[in-house]
Amino acid sequence: MSSAQDPFYIVKEEVQGSIDKLQSSFHRWERIPSDSVELGQLTKELLSNCESIEWQVDELDKTIKVAARDPALYGINELELEKRRRWTSTARIQVGAVKKAVVSGKELSISGPTNANGMRRELLRLPDPHQTEGSNHYHDNDDFISSESDRQLLLMKQQDEELDLLSASVERIGGIGLTIHDELSAQDRIIDDLGSEMDSTSNRLDFVQKKVAMVMKKASAKGQFMMLLFLLVLFIILFVLVFFT
């Protein structure tokens, strides 16, 4: 997306125009005598404009944060995002300096015209009139390189911390998985042992039932009764041996 079509640059131009008008009004405010009625009216106007521009800059900051979540979706890169952050930061500093100077206007007026202009220049971070354009250019480059390096270091530190947290989470999940696996294996062994015991007991009961049936056919009534009694005792003994030993 070209700059002419990008909504950020459209709003940026409007905000920049408002800042230029604000600074022009501020310079006019500096030249108004402290006992003038116009000074009070212009002071209210400047403070109102400062609040309006600050709100617009905050909204631009929000759009930058949204675009930073997925730069590719909006067709921009990290360098462009950093450029936009620097502009909003500079705009906020300029507006804040004007606001601070206007609020403390009485103290600046008492200090005298020369001191007042010097203090206001410091508040607005205006370049010294004798400073060359080349020195400004190199200063901006140094600031950009320094801020970019610091930001990259901060990002790397945050990524390292996130990787450490992720590694710890993976280790915890792995430990829980091994514990669950061991518990399931133990339960499977218990179930297998119980199934084997049940099969063995069932086979023994079938064998006893068959023997009982054979003996019942051959024995007399008294013999059958004795045999039943004997088998009952035998069954009790087998039951005790199977389930209590």
Automatic annotation (TrEMBL):
Major location (coarse): Golgi
Transmembrane segments: 225-244
A GO cellular component entry from the record: membrane
Matching Pfam families: SNARE (PF05739), STX6_10_61_N (PF09177)
SMART domains, per the entry: t_SNARE (SM00397)
Record-linked InterPro entries: SNARE, Syntaxin-6/10/61_N, T_SNARE_dom
BP terms from Gene Ontology: Golgi vesicle transport; protein transport
Subcellular location: Golgi apparatus, trans-Golgi network membrane
Keyword terms, alphabetized: Golgi apparatus, Membrane, Protein transport, Transmembrane, Transmembrane helix, Transport
Family matches, as Gene3D superfamilies: 1.20.5.110, 1.20.58.90
UniProt entry tagged with the keyword Nuclease: no
Membrane topology label: Single-pass type IV membrane protein
Annotated ranges, domain T-SNARE coiled-coil homology: 153-215
Family: Belongs to the syntaxin family.
Protein name, UniProt field: t-SNARE coiled-coil homology domain-containing protein
